[in-house]
Amino acid sequence: MRFFSNLPFEWYVGLRYLRSGKRSGRNRFISFISMISMAGIALGVAALIIVMSVMNGFQKEVRDRMLSVLPHIEIQDVYGALPNWKETAETVKQNKDVAGTAPYVMGQAMLTREDFMRGVIVRGVDPALEGNVSDVGRQFKYGSITSLQPDTFNIAIGKELARLLRVGVGDKVTVVIPQGQVTPAGILPRLKQFTVSGIFEAGHFEFDTTLAFISIDDAMRIFQADAPTGLRVKLHNMQEAPAVAKDLSLLLLDQEVVVRDWSKQNKNWFAAVQTEKKMMFIILMLIIAVAAFNLVSTLVMTVTEKQADIAILRTLGATPRSIMKIFMVQGALAGILGTLIGVSFGILVSLNIDVIVPFIERLFGFQFLPKNIYLISTLPSDLQWMDVLKIGISSIVLSFLATLYPSWSAAKVNPAEALRYE
């Protein structure tokens, strides 16, 4: 009580109105509406934090799975081959952000076995260097990436592709190269039989169905290339890829190469995800706005109920500005309290969603994300504190705006009119 007595009288009265000291029927109703408004703000804030965390988690999960196969940065010669790739690799390694490099050969082909046929991207890699730029070697379910040795004509394919072609380790598949060879019968596609020596699972449906790995020497032979297609680069921090790619472009300015980072290679996908996040933020922010503007009705009813109190305060010397402050304090504190409750609950759920979701699944006997459909069985969450800060500030600002009109209306109360019927 000593703390409250030391507050400015506008804060003291505003806190008293928020606590609704009188317990008449009308005051209880106003208090109930105020609690509903606070609960609405809290639920809206919590829902927005949880949804944004789950969307961030999905984005991070998919991005990490993509980048376990894709390079952080890709360097290609404008003419389609990079004969001096070793010198280029040494130059690239001068950048302190570069963690590793590896050459590659890439081309399109058809994989056939009996009556089954699938179009694939064939990537020729050096098993000894591939671990410097990707996690493919750790994704093998059967076999090993070390089996992709020169002149063995071994091939590693994704788990889904193996299922579609109905092959396993040790089976033969035919690689059909669209670049044909001239024969007396005309131009015919080149064919080469490979042995499946490994099956990997990247966890990304596109890669598991359309990607195949072979030895880089075998790839140069079947694609009739004199040098690797380009150089793949891995960074210590993949978030720095756009800046590092720009630096490498300047570093390799004397060479005719194209430098692309992972955000450019998957620009459409990442742009779509960012658009979805923005739209979801706006939609859920409307829920908070509705709850915040419920404070308007609460404050209007409070002003109507407290007109006699306002008149007495005015006769005791309170200025219209002070009256306005009283009701702004009441509404703003309700909004701040609701925001704090919502932020706390949202953070708690977001940080423990890996425990909460399995509990709900066991309780009701269903699965949110069936693995055979979504390829992941757990609901990911990535709580970003900047999102929490934006949501909290936006909620408080909306709550403050909701107090302006009722507070201005209270400041305009005429003491004589208010006390006429008292």
Q: How is this structure best summarized?
A:
The protein has 422 residues and is an alpha+beta fold.
Report on this model:
- The protein has helices at 2-5, 9-19, 25-67, 85-92, 127-130, 159-165, 205-210, 216-222, 241-251, 262-265, 267-305, 307-315, 320-351, 353-364, 371-374, 385-411, 415-419, and strands at residues 73-77, 98-113, 116-125, 140-143, 154-158, 172-183, 186-200, 211-215, 230-235, 257-261.
- Helices cover 55% and strands 20% of the residues.
- The chain has two domains: 2-64 and 270-419, no CATH class; 73-262, no CATH class.
- The chain is built from 17 helices and ten strands.
- With 422 residues, it is α+β, with helices and mostly antiparallel strands.
List keywords for this structure.
six-stranded mixed β-barrel; alpha+beta; 17 helices; 2 domains; 422 residues
Question: Percent range for helical residues?
Answer: 55-70%
Mean pLDDT over all positions: 80
Largest sheet: 6 strands, mixed, barrel
Briefly note the structural class of the backbone: alpha+beta
What are the secondary-structure elements, in order, as H or E? HHHEHEEHEEHEEHEHEHEHHHHHHHH
Number of helices: 17
* SS elements, strand count: 10
Rg:
33 Å
Distance from first to last alpha carbon: 30 Å
Give the neighbour order of strands across the main sheet: 2-3-8-5-7-6
Low-pLDDT runs: none
Task: Work out the strand percent.
Answer: 15-25%
Shape: elongated
Q: Compute the number of structural domains.
A: 2
Assembly type of the shown chains? single chain
